[in-house]
UniProtKB/TrEMBL annotation:
Keywords: Coiled coil. Residues 602-657, 688-746 form the Nuclear anchorage protein 1 spectrin-like repeat domain. The keyword Coiled coil applies. Residues 192-237, 418-521 form the Nuclear anchorage protein 1 spectrin repeat domain. The lineage of its organism: Eukaryota, Metazoa, Ecdysozoa, Nematoda, Chromadorea. It comes from Brugia pahangi (Filarial nematode worm). The keyword tRNA-binding does not apply. Residues 126-153, 271-325, 713-744, 793-838 form a coiled coil. This is KASH domain-containing protein.
Length: 905
């Protein structure tokens, strides 16, 4: 339009200007009055050019702002979403469409560069973390591979002599040092150093590392949950900003589209709608800017350069300006038409008076009255003419017409006399007052419930306008000359003044009534907005609260904080109800009350969940502390080395301070009963004793109960399961401790029993040939028997050596040894060699016993020998299996008892 239509119009206008100048030179008798001049058309064309250019500039500015906002939103998405090179390139292309020298464009360019740098840095950090995690997994695999060999080496070290205790202590110190290094590593999530990895000598270290890594991951996830919620809220807020900007842009286009030159009546209707929309939008913008300035949460908000509130105010000002111009133009159109009509009437009277002069007084009086009315009407019209160029021109024309009218009235007044002139003036003012009184009295007093605020303000404006006109007429009729009028006109003037005062009083009451209703509408609108805002916040709170209860990965600390937010909302609603009693009649407030009842139930659930979590934390910390105390005391007992039996009982007594009294008492009773049973067991008893402890089974019961009440909270379940696993490991450790103690006691008693049996057998052999001569066959048998005892003693000596090497808890006051038994064996062998043999051959008792056993399989061999008269020595020959041999040859006596064998106290 600027490049094509306007230049063409300007060229045509220049052509018309040249023609008009030429016509002026040849025009002598004809005057152009009604047609607009070329200068007026030029001014209108220039005005159109300015308006079009202004609108194009505004459109360009709005388009630029929209592009900037789109780029900002794309950048916001790129900050939160995975890196996308294509989207970033697209944003850079959009950025190139904006002016380079613009400050906002430069800021956006810096943000794009920063985003690219942040993405590159973040990818590098992510890659570095992945590499470190891969190294950590590889290191843990190596640890797992080498751990078995290291532990076997430790067990081998424990099987050596007491001189190696210092080496074992060094190994334990290395384990503790490595565990400390691991704890520091867990805090930083760094790869384990190779030097520390090589010193691992504790089984299950990888499992503990993975558990703690899972805990750290869960903590990170718990931090991500509120971050994601804040990001969601921020995205919704940015979406609201975008919608507000779109609405502002749309209304701005409509404001620009209002043409103050064309027909104003239809344009004023559009302006009324736009004014109402802007008023509602202004309230939304105020609340939105309040949220933008009150930054909360973990997301740093990008700066928004656009001042939304100022833009709305600018649109309101622009709309008010156009409304004022359109109103002035509408007034100008109507006033021009009325002045033209008055002008025609005046010209008509002038023409008639020139052609046919008024003859009678009545005709002159009627003309005077009518022209006096036209005069007052013209004066009122001149007062309402807008103060602008077009209005000034019309005012000049009106003043000329008024001067002409005053001149005619003066001539008529001179013709009819002062009395009739005063009467005519009075009648004209009276008629005008009657019209104005009728207009004010016809205004509606009652207001419908559907009336809008703009309609109410329009009625108030009409009342004010009517009152101002009536006050001016009152002033006129008060100063009108009545000295020449009759008494009837004087009374009529008083009556008019009284009626005017009555109408003014009523108008003031109506104005107060309308103003009160306006204030009520404003208050109701504000209340409705507040109720809707609280309703939206409460709906959002209920939604978030229910999602929090159903979220298995929720942050437990959020239960209490979210619950307290409801108290804040309740206080706002209570204050609103307290300050605005009439709010209860509002439909929105009724809906709000229904939500409050629902919110109270939800708050109760959140409070219960928060209390359960608090109890869970207390129970967990107490249980963990108890487990750590038990574990510490057990480690102290294990680390003290060998000790006397009474010292072992003291160690178990010390467990009373760290474990429940029932556990400590049970432990002590078990040991005392165990020793007592060992002392009274028969020598042939080979059944192993085993005690399975279950006293830790009920320790995590309350914790697991709270875990079930906190369902579906996953972190509580994980912590409960981890605690149960730790308690199970501790129980197993106690079982292993008692197994080791019982095995050590059992092996010692079996060795002592075997030594006692061998000593008794050697005594029986010595008594069998004490100071007696024996046969050669008996000597041979005794030598064979002594040879078997010697072999048994050698085996028993190896068992004693193994027992001494594997002892962990008990320290013998006197060493257990086979030296005395070997000395007895050597003594008996020497004496047996020095004995003289007899010539009498004795019965081969063994051969006879085998023959008789074959002949009499169901009879006892001793009874058969007696019946056949074969002599034998009951003390010398024991035909039953040796209990010592049967006991001592049991190779499984050093094995740990299986789980199925239990000893109940």
């Amino acid at each position: 339009m600027l490049n094509h239509q306007l230049p063409s119009l300007q060229a045509k206008l220049q052509f018309l200007q040249a023609k008009d100048d030429e016509a002026k030179r040849i025009r002598i008798h004809v005057a152009r009055i009604s047609q607009p001049s070329i200068e007026t058309l030029a001014e209108q064309l220039n005005h159109i050019y300015v308006l079009v250019k202004e609108r194009l500039d505004n459109l360009s500015k709005v388009e630029k702002q929209e592009k900037e906002m789109i780029i900002k939103m794309e950048l916001e998405k790129l900050r939160t979403e995975p890196y996308d090179e294509e989207k970033l390139i697209k944003v850079e292309e959009q950025l190139q469409q904006l002016p380079v020298e613009d400050e906002n464009t430069q800021i956006l360019a810096i943000e794009v560069q920063k985003l690219r740098a942040d993405k590159i840095e973040r990818d590098a950090v992510k890659k570095e973390i992945e590499i470190k995690l891969a190294e950590l997994l590889n290191r843990m695999n190596v640890i797992r591979t080498n751990l078995s060999a290291i532990m076997e080496e430790k067990e081998s070290e424990k099987g050596r002599t007491k001189k190696n205790k210092k080496a074992l202590t060094d190994i334990d110190e290395q384990i503790n040092a490595f565990e400390s290094a691991l704890n520091e590593t867990f805090d930083e999530i760094l790869p384990i150093p190779t030097s520390a990895m090589e010193n691992i000598t504790e089984h299950g270290l990888k499992e503990n590392l993975l558990k703690k890594a899972d805990i750290i991951k869960n903590k990170i996830k718990n931090l991500l949950v509120p971050l994601e919620k804040d990001m969601k809220k921020e995205q919704e807020l940015m979406q609201n900003v975008h919608e507000i900007l779109s609405t502002i842009t749309s209304i701005g286009d409509d404001v620009i589209g209002v043409d103050s030159i064309n027909e104003p009546s239809q344009q004023l209707i559009s302006i009324g709608e736009l004014t109402e929309n802007l008023r509602k939008l202004k309230g939304k913008v105020e609340k939105l800017e309040g949220k933008l300035h009150n930054s909360e949460g973990m997301v740093k908000r990008a700066l928004i350069n656009d001042d939304l509130y100022d833009r709305v105010v600018q649109l309101q000002n622009a709309l008010d300006d156009k409304k004022e111009k359109l109103t002035d133009r509408a007034k100008l159109y109507s006033t021009t038409a009325e002045i033209n009509l008055i002008n025609e009437n005046v010209q008509h009277y002038i023409n008639e008076m020139e052609q046919i002069p008024l003859q009678t007084v009545e005709e002159q009086n009627n003309a005077l009255s009518e022209l006096e009315g036209k005069k007052h009407q013209l004066e009122n019209l001149l007062e309402n003419i807008p103060m602008n160029d077009d209005g000034n021109k019309l005012r000049e024309d009106g003043n000329r017409l008024l001067a002409q009218l005053n001149d005619i009235l003066k001539r008529l007044a001179d013709a009819v006399g002062e009395k009739l002139a005063a009467l005519a003036s009075f009648n004209a003012i009276r008629d005008e007052i009657e019209i104005q009184l009728s207009s004010l009295q016809s205004m509606p007093v009652l207001i419908s419930d559907e009336i809008t605020l703009s309609e109410l303000e329009h009625q108030l404006c009409d009342i004010n306008t009517g009152v101002q006109k009536l006050l001016k007429l009152k002033e006129k009729i008060s100063h009108v000359g009545v000295s020449e009028c009759d008494r009837e006109q004087c009374d009529e003037r008083k009556d008019l003044l009284s009626r005017i005062d009555g109408v003014l009083e009523r108008a003031q009451k109506d104005h107060d009534y309308f103003d009160k209703k306006r204030a009520q509408l404003l208050a109701h609108e504000r209340i409705s907005v507040d109720c809707k805002t609280l309703h939206s916040e409460l709906v959002e709170w209920i939604k978030n609260g229910q999602e929090l209860l159903d979220d298995s990965e929720a942050l437990p600390e959020s239960y209490d904080s979210v619950s307290k937010k409801f108290d804040t909302l309740s206080e706002k609603i209570f204050d609103l109800r307290k300050n605005k009693p009439n709010i209860e009649q509002s439909l929105v407030f009724g809906q709000l009350c229904e939500l409050i009842d629902k919110g109270k139930d939800l708050q109760l659930e959140l409070s219960k969940r928060a209390l359960m979590w608090e109890n869970f934390v207390k129970e967990r910390d107490s249980a963990v502390e108890e487990l750590n105390d038990i574990r510490r005391q057990i480690c102290e007992i294990e680390g003290r080395g060998v000790r006397r039996f009474d010292k072992m009982l003291d160690d178990l007594e010390a467990l009373k301070d760290g474990v429940p009294r029932r556990i400590a008492v049970t432990c002590k009773k078990f040991l005392k009963a165990f020793v007592s049973v060992l002392l009274i067991l028969p020598f042939g008893f080979k059944q192993a004793l085993y005690l399975r402890w279950s006293f830790l089974a009920d320790l995590p019961s309350r914790l697991l109960s709270l875990c079930s009440q906190l369902h579906p909270l996953a972190c509580a379940r994980r912590e409960g399961e981890a605690f149960v696993e730790e308690a199970s490991e501790l129980e197993k450790k106690i079982e292993n401790l008692l197994d080791s103690m019982s095995a050590e006691f059992r092996v010692r008693e079996e060795i002592m029993h075997s030594l006692l049996v061998i000593s008794d057998e050697l005594g029986d052999i010595r008594n069998a040939f004490d100071n007696q001569n024996i046969s050669a066959s008996l000597q041979k048998k005794l030598e064979q028997k002594l040879e078997g005892i010697g072999a048994h003693l050698k085996t028993l000596d190896e068992d004693i050596t193994k027992y001494n090497a594997n002892r962990i808890f008990l320290n013998e006051e006197e060493d257990i040894t086979t030296k005395r038994n070997f000395e007895q064996l050597e003594e008996i062998e020497e004496r047996l060699k020095r004995l003289q043999l007899t010539d009498t051959e004795e019965y081969d008792i063994d051969a006879a016993a085998e023959v008789l056993a074959a002949i009499y399989p169901n009879d006892y061999p001793r009874d058969v020998l007696r019946e056949q008269g074969i002599p034998f020595d009951d003390d010398l020959y024991d035909l039953s299996p040796s209990s010592a041999t049967s006991d001592d040859d049991d190779v499984s006596k050093f094995e740990t008892p299986n789980d199925e064998v239990c000893f109940m106290i």
